[in-house]
Amino acid sequence: MSLLRVASRSLLLKARPSPALFGAAHATATRTTAANVRYLFLSPICHAGRPKIYTKTGDKGTSALFTGERRPKDDEVFEALGTNDELASAIGLAREFCIDQPSPDLSHMILQLEQIQCLLQDIGSNIATPRDSSAATAARLARTEFDADGQHVQDLEQWIDRMDQELPPLTSFILPSGGKAAASLHIARTTCRRTERRVAPMAQEHRVDQSVAIYLNRLSDYLFTCARYAAMKGGFKEVAYKKPRPPRAKRGTKASAPSSSNDEDV
């Protein structure tokens, strides 16, 4: 059976071609002419059954919701969806820094962060199915309902309590610090707060499940605790807030009046 027939059969069966097949393709391509290489890798057979990344449906400035309706891309629903996506990305980056930090004590946190990223996808489905939309069928609403029994929020609270038992008590405000893992978790925390601000008005108007807003509120507390925990387990010191003091004038000199060029700052 020829190489192209093997590839065609694999695609027709909707199976992922094996690495061995790609290896054979590469070896064959290096022994063929430029024209044959172009045919081998650009042939429609190699792309059959695989959806394109781009759809061009949003070129006119609209996007589709899960209900099928299309809205402008600057609609508040897409603003909430986009911010939720930023949150998932920020958590993904923080998770990678946690993996890189040589501390086996973060293994449970790494698994939790991955689970949270999956739940944020579910939150996105909820946001993309406005609960007050006439196009939202009962089946769609049921399929995209989020944390109806509050179990996901309870999980966050339990994880927070377990980590907090090991942490020293807070005696002052702390600045985002404590190593790359901790600092990136603080970035995820602030992104979570922004996501919550986008979702809160929609939840108050019953366009998003109230449970989504509750989860995001608790998630920011969890990420704050994770940041402190990662700093402690990594042996990094958290930087405490200290009120900056104005510089003291030298003896025998008088403080100069602000120049006219800085009048706009007065």
TrEMBL record:
Compositional bias segments (type: Basic residues): 242-253
Catalysed conversion reaction: cob(I)alamin-[corrinoid adenosyltransferase] + ATP = apo-[corrinoid adenosyltransferase] + adenosylcob(III)alamin + triphosphate
Classification via InterPro entries: CblAdoTrfase-like, CblAdoTrfase-like_sf, PduO-typ
Alphabetically ordered keywords of this record: ATP-binding, Nucleotide-binding, Transferase
Biased composition (Polar residues): 256-266
Occurrences of domain Cobalamin adenosyltransferase-like (ranges): 53-230
Superkingdom assignment: Eukaryota
Residue segments, region Disordered: 240-266
Keyword field contains DNA damage: no
Membrane spanning stretches: none
GO biological process, alphabetically ordered: cobalamin metabolic process
KW Kinase (keyword) present: no
GO molecular function, one term: corrinoid adenosyltransferase activity
Family named by the database record: Belongs to the Cob(I)alamin adenosyltransferase family.
Function per UniProt: Converts cob(I)alamin to adenosylcobalamin (adenosylcob(III)alamin), a coenzyme for methylmalonyl-CoA mutase, therefore participates in the final step of the vitamin B12 conversion. Generates adenosylcobalamin (AdoCbl) and directly delivers the cofactor to MUT in a transfer that is stimulated by ATP-binding to MMAB and gated by MMAA.
UniProt subunit comment: Homotrimer.
Descriptive protein name: Corrinoid adenosyltransferase MMAB
Taxonomic source organism: Actinomortierella ambigua
